[in-house]
Amino acid sequence: MNLSLHILSSERPFLISGPCSVESEAQMNEVAHRLKTHTSTQVIRGGIWKPRTRPDSFEGVGEKGLKWLKEAGKQVNLKVCTEVSNAKHVEQCLKNEIDVLWIGARTTVNPFTVQEISDALKGTKIPILIKNPINPDLKLWMGAVDRFLNNDLTDITVIHRGFSIYSHHKYRNVPAWEIPIAFKQYFPEIPILCDPSHISGNRNLLLELSQKSMDMNFNGLFIETHPNPAEALSDASQQITPEELKTLINSLVLRENKIVSSHQNEMESYRNKIGLLDDRIFELLSSRMKLSEQLAVIKQKNNMTILQEKHWKSVFDYRLGKANEYDLSEEFVQKMMEFIHQESIRHQLSIMNPNIDSE
Ligand code: PEP
Ligand code: MN
To answer: Most exposed among 115, 119, 206, 345, judged by the fewest C-beta atoms under 10 Å?
Structure first.
């Protein structure tokens, strides 16, 4: 894959910032000047067509805002970007010489729309930012990337903006860091930005999320700033001023993806020991599955169900109660026991019903 990542400089964190929504000419000019003065922002963002959950919210100023966005960028000599959700948006952005486009989370979920946008952009060299889909589906995110690569649109960057959940949580969208980390394994050449604004929904959590993304070796941040966040027409509680962005960036500790040679041997020794422990974990898991299979033989001969809820509940609760003692989080113990149990059921099913698919 030949990716020409010309919008991203090697400097970390690469910074894209600006308001959630373009609201007026004055707002854009003011935010652009303050971003230029106080921060190293390289691309100014601003939503023109806002995908709102309910139709009674502010849905963006529409096409006229493209001129305000572009002009604000010109005044401070910075590139600008906005979200496109269909081929008509693409056409209007190209007409107004918007420099960079982003695909929103609600668009990435729909392969038809992603394809339509990709086809509308075919033949251009425009940089594209692809947010993760709102649902935690790695393949859907990768599929959206493929739809652009297949049309020779190779200036691609992705944005981690978290995943929707129904129940209350600290964050507006759960980060599920394992998904962007897995994405990096599949597409190591594609730069990745963190959008702490849409993950958190809360300006007080921006710093901790930004720091975490830098420690995960992300390339930069995509973060909402507004000249007067309290008055913002959308996402007011997560926006900060350009001056607050400066403080946030200055507070980040930037670490490098390297091994310091004076510690190489010491690190190798720890990593080797960890590898040996992983070997033992695998051997133990394999032995555990063999014992489950023995149980399955008894259950089959005696016409007993695989799942015996009361027993499983007591095993599960007992292990959960041990989480603290072993300095493991309850969430980890819960997930681990559920995974082990699922695999155990798969082994038992294959013994008891050799002719049906145990997946
Ligand atoms: C946005 O960046 O303004 C936006 C709508 O984001 P998302 O697609 O992540 O919800
Ligand atoms: Mn927003």
So the answer is: 119
Q: Residue 216 carries which side chain, given as an amino acid letter?
A: M
Residue nearest to atom 9 of ligand 1 (CA): 105
Residue whose C-alpha is closest to residue 335's, from 133, 168, 141, 178: 178
Is the distance from the beta carbon of residue 172 to the nearest atom of ligand 1 less than 6 Å? no
Whether residue 47 has its Cβ less than 6 Å from ligand 1: yes
230-273 confidence digits (pLDDT tens) = 999 999 999 999 999 999 999 999 998 899 999 999 999 999 99
* Helix boundaries (H) for 150-215: 178-186, 196-200, 206-215
Q: Kindly state if the Cβ of 51 falls inside 6 Å of ligand 1.
A: yes
Helical (H) or strand (E) element with 45: strand 43-45
pTM assigned to the model: 0.90
Question: What are the structural domains of the chain?
Answer: 14-251 (3.20.20.70), 284-359 (no CATH)
Q: Are 176 and 136 contacting, i.e. CB atoms less than 8 angstroms apart?
A: yes
62: DSSP letter? -
Over residues 332-349, the pLDDT tens digits come to: 999 999 999 999 999 999
